[in-house]
Write a structure and sequence with these properties.
32% of the residues lie in helices and 39% in strands. The chain is an alpha+beta fold. Helix 11 packs across helix 18, helix 12 (594-609) packs across helix 17 (695-720) and helix 13 (623-643) crosses helix 17 (695-720).
Length: 784
């Protein structure tokens, strides 16, 4: 019996070995056969060439693996999609019942590229068309549904590129990971989770989702951490002439909706944009902010309600600049935004920025007609700057820091109170309060106050339009508006304290209007301009009631001359006080008027006769304005000598006066500046002049100017032999309240009798009827 059992065992072993060998041979041969067949017939069945380095196919377990798998572009040797490995498992048992189930599919380190060729076609459109029915118009016999399932889908560490050939977008994401339990043939829901990072810069996006593939309903829950939004800059380039952009996105959102209907979305969570910068260059922002944060309780545009927990904007900055031609917005986007309009009108192009703009515009149109609520709204430390280079010299004003605060904004509740307050740089303040009906934006109450604003701030305009600057004056503006259903009733009070016209600035480009004569008509005997200007009527077409201005002007014409002796006495005393306490310098000049020399001489005589008396001089210098004038002068001088070379060795005072009066807006001069330009994106006369005159030249001339003024001032004291009792301290670089560089004088020891007498007399006059009314405002100005 033993031999028989031995033969049986041996037979079983042989049979097993044969079976194993056959299986091995099948696997060994079927793998290269599969590789061969896939590569040979890929174009026929997919429209694309497919290649791989090797394949492994196990027909017994249903496992397939392709190594270095590549799909090429249509009729091209360029790779469309590649991966280190493509693995899949098939349920062979279910194939017997005509059910196709891929039990798993894994893509290892895939790299793919999507190219947008036109607005509606991509480099993969041919694949979609290849597998789409050739003729959908013919009725087909109903068939039982194909039982196809794909389960356990994974993508590991993918990199995907996107290019738009029309706009020039080149963007990619990396570290893309995806995992899904897949979709069953009898289910429409595709669940999954994903994560990826931007190709350039920091950040990440991770989330999970559920999508109904039949009706395209979706449910998302994702988190965005410091995601680089550099792709926005690429879309901007197609509708801007220049500019840079950078920002980072953070978010934690849950949303549900439908892909077919953009307004069908219900979302909650928090979104913030950080370190936002957009402007001329990396170092020159037009718009920027630290953080824009929105806390969303619930938003549902389709159901018309917007509930925000908070809306906060931290340190926003906006700079608007006006040039001789256009402004900084139009130089960037084209005149009247023509670049944007042209881009938007092109049906062949898709622009992400414009698509988002249209989406938010559609939502915002319905906002005030919806149920909206914002629990907390604030704008913190804003900086709003306006620069005007279209005048003969630069004008600048800056609201910084500006705050906007609002209590709970709820359409279902009563009025909303909004407070806007700001410092105005270099001097002044602003406070605006408003009570707005959230159910009717055309009904509100508004109160405003602008105070302590020097009228000298507007000298660039006064010089351009009249040739006369002011060296004194403070603006106060108050108003109270009551608006109901778009109709306004308001009181507005304009008060200008002590405006004073100074020496005319002669410039060929400046118009000549005798501002001193205008002041005689509008300034009252108390040396103020005080007008009440009521406004009524529709907000779209308001009526300004100017009767107070008319009657005040008539009063100044017929009544004020009687009070001339009083006004001249006040002016004389003010001159004594002012010129004893300060010496004002004409911009870019180192000379004093005869009246100034007279007062400095009296000061020197006083020190000479009072051994204990001393004077300390504090130079308060408007360096920015002085250097601007020097820059203009030196550039005009260089232009003048370029066309008058014979004057190079004989340039005299008359030539200097001619150059000084020459306009920086002269067309020939501007043409000369433009020819000398070595770089683009230069829009201002100041920049064009700085392109020709080195800053060291300007600084040297400025230092010589300061020294000349000091020497001139001291020379009067040297004549009296008391220069050693005049002490100069370190100069301050400021923007003076009077608009001009000046010397502030302080006395040590005795004070001149004439100054004390002037102080006493001016106090008496301030208490008389014409000036007593405004004494409180004058004390505020003195504190500045």
């Amino acid at each position: 019996m033993k031999p028989k059992k031995s033969r049986l065992r041996k037979g079983l072993i042989v049979t097993a070995c044969v079976i194993i060998g056959i299986c091995t041979l099948i696997i060994v041969f079927i793998s290269p056969i599969a590789k061969y067949l896939v590569e040979k017939y890929s174009v026929k069945y997919t429209g694309r060439q497919i290649k791989m380095s090797w394949a492994y196919v196990n027909p017994f377990t249903g496992y397939v693996h392709f190594s270095n798998f590549k799909i090429y572009e249509a009729k091209s040797d360029t790779v469309f999609l590649s991966m280190e490995g493509l693995s899949a498992g098939f349920n062979l048992h279910k194939l017997l019942s005509k059910e196709y189930e891929i039990t798993s599919m894994t893509l290892d380190r895939p790299t793919g590229i999507a190219i947008q060729e036109t607005r509606n076609t991509f480099n993969f459109t041919d694949i979609i068309n290849h597998f789409s029915p050739s003729d959908t118009s013919k009725p087909t016999k109903p068939k039982s549904p194909t039982k196809f399932s794909i389960l356990n889908i994974k993508i590991n560490d993918g990199t995907f590129y996107f290019r738009d050939t029309l706009i020039g977008i080149n963007y990619f994401i990396k570290n893309f990971n995806f995992e899904s339990s897949g979709i069953q043939w009898n289910s429409d829901t595709l669940p999954g989770k994903f994560s990826f990072a931007p190709g350039i810069g920091p950040g990440s996006i991770a989330g999970k989702f559920n999508i109904n593939l039949r009706d395209l309903d979706y449910l998302f829950d994702f988190t965005i951490v410091n995601f680089n939004l550099s792709i926005i800059e690429q879309y901007l380039k197609d509708m801007t002439n220049y500019g840079t952009f950078s920002a980072y996105l953070n978010a934690s959102l849950k949303a549900k909706g439908n892909f077919r209907d953009g307004e069908n979305i219900d979302a909650k969570g928090r979104i913030s944009i950080n370190n936002f910068h957009f402007g001329k260059s990396v170092n020159d922002d037009y718009v920027s902010f630290d953080t824009l944060a929105v806390g969303i309780t619930e938003i549902n545009p389709k159901e018309h309600f917007y509930h925000l927990d908070s809306l906060s904007l931290a340190h926003p900055c906006f700079k608007y600049e006006k040039y001789d031609y256009l402004d900084n917005v139009e130089t960037m986007f084209g005149k009247s935004g023509t670049n944007v309009a042209s881009e938007d009108a092109n049906p062949a192009k898709f622009n992400l920025i414009l698509a988002l703009a249209h989406f938010f515009a559609n939502i915002s149109r319905n906002f005030f007609h919806s149920e909206y609520k914002i629990n907390d709204l604030e704008v913190k430390r804003a900086d709003i700057k306006f620069n005007d280079y279209s005048t003969n010299e630069k004008f600048t004003i800056d609201a910084d820091p500006l705050y906007i605060l609002a209590d709970s904004i709820d359409k279902s509740h009563g009025d909303v109170k909004i407070i806007l307050k700001s410092q105005i740089q270099p001097y002044g303040n602003m406070l605006i309060t408003a009570d707005i009906n959230p159910r009717d934006s055309a009904s509100f109450d508004l109160n405003y106050h602008f105070g302590k604003i020097p009228i000298t701030l507007f000298n660039p305009y006064l010089i351009s339009f009249s040739s006369y600057p002011l060296d004194r004056g403070t603006i106060e503006l108050n108003g109270a508006w009551k608006v109901r259903n778009g109709f306004i009733q308001s009181q507005n009070h304009l008060l200008v304290i002590d405006p004073r016209v100074t020496k005319r600035v002669k410039n060929k480009a400046s118009r000549w209007i005798p501002l001193w004569m205008v002041m005689a008509l509008v300034r009252e005997r108390s040396n103020v301009i005080d007008y009440q200007i009521p406004i009524s009527g529709s907000l779209r077409s308001p009526t300004f009631h100017l009767s107070d201005i008319v009657f005040s002007t008539l009063n100044n014409i017929f009544v004020k001359p009687v009070t001339t002796p009083y006004r001249l006495k006040v002016q004389s005393l003010e001159d004594v006080i002012e010129k004893s306490l300060s010496i004002t310098w004409e911009t870019h000049h180192a000379s004093m008027t005869r009246l100034q020399e007279k007062f400095v001489g009296k000061m020197a005589d006083f020190i000479a006769s009072n051994p204990s008396a001393m004077v300390t001089v504090y130079p308060e210098l408007y360096a920015a304005k002085e250097k601007e004038y020097i820059l203009f002068y030196e550039t005009k001088k260089k232009y003048y000598l370029a066309y008058h070379p014979e004057k190079r060795g004989t340039f005299d005072e008359s030539d200097s006066e001619y150059v000084d009066k020459m306009s920086v807006k002269d067309s020939d001069f501007v043409h000369y500046l433009n020819k000398k330009l070595k770089r683009s994106l230069v829009f201002t006369i100041q920049e064009k002049c700085a392109n020709i005159i080195d800053s060291n030249v300007v600084n040297t001339e400025y230092n010589l100017l300061c020294k000349s003024r000091e020497n001139l001032f001291l020379s009067i004291f040297k004549e009296k032999g008391v220069a050693d009792r005049v002490k100069f301290v370190h100069a301050h670089d400021i923007i003076p309240y009077n608009g001009f560089s000046f010397y502030r004088l302080e006395y040590k020891g005795d004070i001149p009798d004439y100054l004390m007498a002037a102080y006493k007399k001016i106090d008496e006059l301030n208490n008389e009827t014409p000036r007593e009314k405004y004494e409180k405002e004058r004390k505020k100005i003195k504190s500045i």
